[in-house]
Amino acid sequence: MPLRVNQDRAARPPFTESVAPAPLRRANLGGLGSIGMKQKSAFLPLVASILTALLAGGAACGTSGGSGGNGAFGGGGGTGGGIFGDSSLGGTTNTGGQEAGIIVDVNVEATPPCKGLQCEIPSCSGGATTSISGTVFAPNGELPLYNVIVYVPLYRDVPLEPITLGATCDKCNTTIKNTVRTTLTDHEGKFTLDDVPAGVDIPIVMQVGKWRRQIKLPQIQPCQDNVLSDPQQTRLPRDQIEGDIPQMAITTGGCDPLACLFRKMGLADSEFTAPTSGGRMHVYKGVGGGDVAGGIAPAPWDALWNSVANLSKYDITILSCECSEQNTYKTTQQREYLRDYLNLGGRVFATHYHYTWFKNGVPEFQALADWQSAAGTGSSPFTIDTSFPKGMAFMQWLQVVSSTVTGDQINITSVASDLRTVNAGAQRWIYKPAAGANPEGVKYFTFNTPVGADAESQCGRAVMSDIHVSSGSQTPVPTACNSNPLTDQEKALIFLFFDLSSCIQPDDEKPVPPPVPQ
């Protein structure tokens, strides 16, 4: 008879070789009849060795029981003499060598063996699953955050992939290497990771852009939800000891204490330093701005935006209002440097008079908005644009963290009126609708760069905010900053800052978790 080997490969979740796998459904081995077998990872190589023996014309393994005929698996009219030396596999079906050869009909689970923590995901009955849930917070442990990636890494004790500091092209559709499960926080900052490993010291990672913190959970119970309720456990890092923080530059200015927002957000004082001192928030002294505590802040026109190379050291560049355009310190070439930095993947957060980088900048930036004065649009309430997914999440988030936000209306102060509407390539977030003789006035908008490129080619992102944190300047940074509770205005700016920090995607698309590597 011809040799026949049929294998039905059924997809299953990966298994570990240390756990007894499921039985093969059927195995007909020559005259040995149908037998039940335990699947072993060595089974298919064994079949290959049997085939080799058959082609050589000899008896591959064992001998037939009784007086059966010749051949690798022929005969075996009696009992005993199984192929693995196991009497339970002795042939009883065929008589006296009537059929020589091998017939194998086998269901083989062909998914590769599991790796790392994949092997510690329990199988639960009755539709149950092992999950981890909680809320991710800003570094201060108080403000929940939207659109934070939460994931279980593949290995318990292998270091995470290092993060490259400085301007890089970070796209949202990029796979994070060596992950088991991924998810995103919702507009309440909440997350649930389903079908996760159980056991001791299970790591999870919280990441938005280059903010990243890994913690280990001492015990995850199988087949139930494991709730993380301590905000100090699930917040982003305050300093470099706790995790990864993007490299940021901030210029101080005479009319907006923007640096103080980051201290109130929870960034440790030790991270505010001069550019040569190793902190994650390098302070530059703009016109009318303050110095840095314990150091000397250089002028940004001499040491920051004087070259693409200097700008590109930073993931995010934050520009505090200087009370006027101060164009003497922003040359045409320097405006081109800022454009080139953004195109490489840099991020810029510009407040009020720093609109000059766009209004008086390269042509593609000038074309993003109608830069006419929007007189009469500087008083509350203002409207949140909910026509795109992140705008809707912004409104919903504000309703969670604020008691004064009603529907899509928000009350803010210290607002300027430097533009009317935005054009193609820009996304409006907060605005004052046109009313009577007063035009529309946009107060906050974003755009991805290069402007006009297709979404797959865009790497950078910029913010134009006509909203101050408050008025005046506080110096030195950050020790002169007040410790008052966050205002609704400050909360809104923190949400928008973390959106700027995040990976790049079109604003008209809803964020989705990064894919798990296959």
Fold blueprint:
Layout: E1 4-9, E2 23-28, E3 34-38, H1 43-56, E4 103-108, E5 131-135, E6 149-153, E7 179-184, E8 190-194, E9 199-208, E10 211-220, E11 225-227, E12 248-252, H2 259-265, E13 272-273, E14 281-285, H3 300-303, H4 308-311, E15 316-319, H5 332-343, E16 347-351, H6 356-359, H7 363-366, E17 382-384, H8 389-401, E18 409-410, E19 426-432, E20 441-449, E21 460-465, H9 488-501
Parallel strand pairs: 1-4, 5-11, 12-14, 12-15, 13-14, 15-16, 16-21
Antiparallel strand pairs: 2-3, 5-8, 6-7, 6-9, 9-10, 17-18, 17-19, 19-20, 20-21
Description:
With 518 residues, the chain is an alpha/beta fold. The protein is 15% helix and 22% strand. The protein is built from nine helices and 21 strands. A ten-stranded mixed sheet has the order 13-14-12-15-16-21-20-19-17-18, with helices on both faces. It has a four-stranded antiparallel sheet with strand order 7-6-9-10, with no helix packed on it. Strand 2 and strand 3 form a beta hairpin. The radius of gyration is 32 Å and the shape is globular.
Jot down its keywords.
alpha/beta, 4-stranded antiparallel beta sheet, 15% helix, disordered N terminus, 518 residues, globular, 21 strands
Strands in their spatial order, largest beta sheet: 13-14-12-15-16-21-20-19-17-18
Could you state the oligomeric state of the chains shown? Answer: single chain
Helical stretch count? 9
Distance from first to last alpha carbon: 41 Å
Strand content: 15-25%
Radius of gyration over C-alpha positions, nearest whole angstrom: 32 Å
Principal-axis shape: globular
